[in-house]
Design goal:
This protein has about 90 residues and is mainly α. The protein has three helices and no strands. It is elongated, with a radius of gyration of 19 Å.
């Protein structure tokens, strides 16, 4: 793995750590005793409308998961073929 790849991986890991903490806090608020099904539906509806992305929060999350899945598939295919990205060591883990 090149230095550039390691730096990118480090940034992604840091961002995922922040996202994980934020999602834990959101989950705590949504699982509060005073949040019933109607309140939860209203909260999720607000999330859907508040995100500055076409379609709202859920399509944005789906796009993120899809991008991660595509990257994973490409990496698996490269490993299966025994190829690597330019600048990567084929034996590096």
């Amino acid at each position: 793995m090149t230095g550039r790849s390691r730096a990118r991986l480090g940034r992604v890991r840091a961002l995922l750590g922040i996202a994980q903490l934020a999602l834990q806090q959101v989950g705590g608020h949504l699982n509060a005793d005073d949040v019933d099904a109607r309140a939860l539906a209203a909260i999720l509806g607000e999330f859907q409308e508040d995100i500055d992305m076409p379609g709202g929060l859920f399509p944005m999350l789906a796009q993120l998961v899809s991008a991660a899945a595509r990257g994973h598939r490409r990496a698996r295919l490269r490993r299966a073929r025994g190829t690597t990205l330019p600048g990567h060591d084929s034996g590096a883990a």
